[in-house]
Backbone:
């Protein structure tokens, strides 16, 4: 039934020039139902209210060892259902052993957007339980800090926090972790990338040694393993949900196109796909984000934009307008590529090739979350061709190229200085190869 629905949706959507008529099958997996975990009644009610019926693979693998009291090291990307994978068994434990007086759980998130999002999922899942939570994150004024201070003093069972803001509160000495039973580190690779390792270790040293620790990370490089070793206790259950591979139900497509025609191509793609109700366009630089949003607006489209020049409130406003459907298209830098959960995104457009395969997977993972399907278009100029091929190697898939619309045919990238053979090289004008990582460092 689900499959037929997706098939119909896809066929309706593939109406622009050059799109393939085939789509990818969504595997019909035999899955565990949540009722089989034997959760407390109040928690099961929350799951029913959210319409969660079957566990996703990461939930299937992580929930049993967490319920057995093991520490868990899990490699899973956003979009896999990893948040509920750590929230559910922890909430089940808290429902069985309530203690409203003291902090029992600390969840650390890399960004305020993720802290808010996890707190929202937590509130929804725990709606029928008597568990309380507080989200504390930076980027707001002193008044918010004071509100957080009061909430922390009043007490809550669960704190969802970003490392910097939590450290500020801890320094003031009114947070007591003596009764803490769970430490959850989410998006650990991102936190290390952002330089939070010392702050996290500092926090960890203030926690009781006897606790259950869960570490979730989208990738598992060696420094994450080393970090995990310092924080987790044996026995550790290790879970690995295939990384660096986009979900199977994303239709991935690419256009080979010069920068000069990318804005016109975006207009064409959006015009030809009016049925796409919610589209995120990612661009590497904030200047590009502003230019693109501006020119789409001039064409009469309702378009939002998110980049690092906006205040937290402005960003939230833009995200809200997008979520509510007021602006069906949003142009953003990677500020929102990871973790942000907006339901019903039909398509992602990569206005440029992301820095590396992980970024690519994170960006296109905004579509096709959980069991929905989605499309991802990537624009590849001559300079990025090499890097895109590396991404294809890593995701072990050749992304289908679409022909450019007739009027943009001139914008097909020209092969650069190749001696024989087709294709083009991934070198900048000065012949210097640009490192993907290096490009990510700029302010977004
Ligand atoms: P996450 O990977 O935690 O960001 O979750 C991705 C999205 O899937 C979120 O919107 C969740 O609310 C949703 N989700 C998580 N688990 C399930 C499930 N078992 N069934 C349906 N949706 C889910």
Residues:
């Amino acid at each position: 039934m689900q499959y037929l629905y997706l098939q119909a949706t896809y066929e309706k959507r593939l109406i622009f020039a050059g799109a393939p008529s085939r789509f990818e099958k969504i595997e019909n997996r035999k899955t565990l139902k949540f009722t089989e975990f034997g959760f407390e009644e109040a928690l099961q009610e929350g799951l029913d209210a959210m319409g969660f019926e079957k566990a996703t693979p990461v939930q299937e693998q992580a929930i049993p060892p967490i319920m057995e009291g093991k520490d868990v090291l899990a490699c899973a990307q956003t979009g896999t259902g990893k948040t509920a994978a750590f929230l559910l068994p922890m909430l089940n434990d808290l429902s069985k052993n309530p203690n409203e007086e003291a902090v029992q759980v600390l969840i650390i998130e890399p960004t305020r957007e993720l802290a808010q999002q996890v707190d929202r999922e937590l509130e929804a899942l725990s709606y029928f339980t008597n568990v309380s939570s507080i989200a504390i994150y930076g980027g707001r004024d002193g008044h918010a800090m004071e509100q957080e201070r009061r909430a922390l003093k009043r007490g809550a069972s669960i704190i969802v926090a970003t490392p910097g803001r939590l450290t500020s509160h801890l320094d003031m000495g009114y947070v007591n972790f003596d009764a803490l039973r769970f430490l959850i580190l989410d998006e650990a690779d991102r936190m290390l990338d952002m330089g939070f390792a010392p702050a996290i270790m500092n926090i960890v040293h203030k926690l009781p040694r006897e606790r259950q620790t869960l570490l979730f990370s989208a990738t598992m490089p060696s420094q994450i393993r080393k970090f995990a070793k310092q924080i987790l206790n044996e026995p550790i259950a290790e879970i690995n949900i295939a990384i660096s591979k986009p979900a199977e139900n994303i239709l991935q497509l690419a256009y080979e196109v010069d920068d000069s025609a990318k804005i016109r191509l975006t207009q064409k793609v959006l015009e030809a796909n009016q049925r796409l109700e919610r589209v995120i366009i990612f661009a590497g630089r904030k200047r590009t984000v502003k230019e693109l949003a501006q020119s789409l607006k001039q064409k009469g489209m309702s378009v939002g934009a998110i980049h690092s020049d906006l205040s937290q409130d402005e960003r939230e406003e833009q995200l809200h307008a997008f979520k509510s459907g007021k602006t069906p298209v949003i142009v953003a830098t990677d500020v929102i590529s990871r973790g942000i959960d907006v339901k019903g995104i039909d398509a992602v457009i990569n206005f440029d090739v992301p820095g590396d395969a992980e970024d690519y997977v994170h960006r296109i993972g905004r579509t096709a979350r959980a069991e929905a399907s989605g499309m991802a278009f990537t624009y590849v100029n001559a300079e990025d061709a090499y890097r895109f091929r590396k991404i294809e190697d890593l995701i072990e898939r050749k992304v289908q190229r679409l022909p450019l619309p007739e009027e943009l045919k001139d914008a097909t990238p020209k092969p650069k200085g190749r001696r024989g053979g087709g294709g083009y090289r991934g070198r900048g004008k000065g012949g210097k190869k640009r490192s993907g990582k290096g490009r990510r460092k700029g302010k977004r």
Observations:
- The chain has two domains: 3-231, 250-414.
- The domain at 3-231 is CATH 3.40.50.300 (Rossmann fold).
- The two ends are 42 Å apart (CA to CA).
- Confidence is low (pLDDT under 50) at residues 1-29, 417-444.
